[in-house]
Structures are given as C-alpha cells and as structure tokens.
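@channel sequence for tomorrow's demo:
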Amino acid sequence: MVGVQYRLFDATTIERMVDHLINLLEGIVAQPQKRLSELPLLTGAERQTLLFDWNNTATNYPQDKCIHELFEAQVEKTPNAVAVVFENQQLTYRQLNNKANQLAHHLRSLGVKPEVLVGICVERSLDMLIGLLAILKAGSSYVPLDPIYPQERIAFILEETQAAVLLTQAKLRETIPQHQAQVVCLDINWHLIAQQSQENLCSELISDNLAYTIYTSGSTGKPKGVQISHGALSNFLYSMQQAPGLTSSDTLLAVTTYSFDIAALELFLPIIVGARLVIASRETVSDGIRLLAKLLDTKATVMQATPATWQLLLAAGWDGDSQLKILCGGEALPRNLANQLLDKCHSLWNMYGPTETTIWSAASQVEA
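structure tokens (generated this afternoon):
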C-alpha cells in the first residue's frame, strides 16, 4: 500500500546481507569456474560460529552400554541406597537389581531373547519398574500398555507387535482382551519367579538393539509403533543428566504414565545416576490435593509434568518450592503459566520432542 513503510529487516540484518553479497561477489571473481552453490556466503567468523562452534556438542558417554547395564553399574556403586519408593514400599539398588534379575531369568526360560517384544500391562507400582528392567535384562524390548487404555487399543497393539510374553497383575488379567502372548502375573506368580537366580544375566545385546516400542496417540489415523534403541535412549539420558541435570542427591517424583515416552526419563535417569525415584500412584497423579501432598512429603527436587498437571497443582494451592526443578513438556507452555511457575521453583525448563526422536529433542531454561 502507498505510504505504508514495511520494516522487514533491521539495520543489522541488512548489513549482514550486504556482507554476504560481497563475499559471494568476491568468490565469483576468485573462482569463476565454481557453481554458485559452491561459493561462500558466510564470513570466516560466521562459519566458525554457525558451522563449528554451535555443532561442537560431542561428549563422552558409554555409547556401548545398554540401559540395564548402566543401572547395574550404579548398583555396584550404591547397593544399599534407596533406589525406588512407592507408597509405603521401597527397594534399595541391590534389592531392585535382584528382583529384576529373577524376573529376567524367568523370561529367558520362556524363550525371551533379543528383538522379541514383551508387553507389560501393570498398575503404577514397584512391579512396573521391576518388570521394565527385567525385560531389558532379558534382552527384549518392552511394549507398555496402560491398563486404562481402551480395549480396542490394547488388542490392536498386542496383535500388531505379536508380543511373545505379557507381564501383568492378577486383577488386570481378565480385563485384557484376547491375545496369543504367554501371561506372567507379577503378583501371584512371584513365588515361581523368586526361585530364579539373582545374578546379572550375560547379554549379547548391543546399543543398536531395541529398548522399547511405544505407540503414538493415533490422532491422525492408526496408532504407530515407534521403536527406540538402547543407544538412542542412553544418548538422551546422558544429555538430560547434564542439562537440566540430575545427580545422586536428587529425588525425582514420577507422575507420567509409562505408555507416554517421557516416562523413560523419570524411570531410568534416576537409577543410572544414583538418585531416588518416587513413583506416584495413578490416584495421586489425577488429584491435585493428593499430588500436592505427595510433592511436599517426598521433598522432591525434580518433577516432570505437562502444563495441565502443573496447573492442577497451582489450583490445589501449591505455594512452590525453591529447591524444585520443574520440567514441563508434552503440550505448549503458556506464558502466564510459565510466569506463575517461575516464582515458585528453583528453575523451569520447557521441553519438546516427538516420540520418533527419542523423547525430548529440545530443551530450554525459561527465564523471567
């Protein structure tokens, strides 16, 4: 429109574009035989910053180790420290490892081996973590099935994955739709499982082997199984250990259903760094008052949840905790919610990532 000034570029941007044009023209003169796409635009300083400094993210971490092996290494360091708590129950690192080993040996006896998928449909409990670790120790990949999933979804996933074994609990067994998997009830069958060895299993797994297969929501069609390797998960966990950061002095309160891939951070990162993991029950997670009480009682220093859950806590009257590190993701984080949370915590991190890229692929600390 006549008389309207458009300010698409500021002075700094225009100056940078002029420099790029000069670089290009000088490149044409110096190397007229080259194709346009091969000539330089960036200055030397820009090339260093954009192509080298920003991409210099390599770090040392055990790329040849599987997730359960990282846990076993931590067991050797802190066998008597409390690893996981659920309600009035708790297990030390040694106890958790022993139980997971017994179940893993039992799974091996049922024919479970690398690349064989094992379903797990249990309530939030110590059994949940024992089962996940055991599946990995046996060399398999776990397929999480939330008990409150619609019957059609559970049936679809069991059919498509052709899961060889299904770990569950007696009260859930009759609610699971018809399937072909061998069933192991972690409660009523434990007397048989407990006869197995407590020793770590020998494994020929490599980091390229699968750790889990998680199904998407299916909001754009049929749910799709996303398969993630040990190496990808290990890379992610070590990145999260550095930033936002988790140490052996932390207590993480886990609230996410294990059928949502972000639960892998909550369940595995604490137990490979020597921290304490507290698993909140389904009833606690869905009730703001109960969740607030659990957060205060556990003295958690880290909690990961969706914006909806943090809003639930605020609505329940949460006053905040200056020691708490907040990880927020799964949905867009509204600015007004971020501002409320910033006043009530040690630090706030906004996270995002599709299932296919192994949980969070972007993380940024939110400032005031």
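heads up for whoever presents: The chain has a mean pLDDT of 93.
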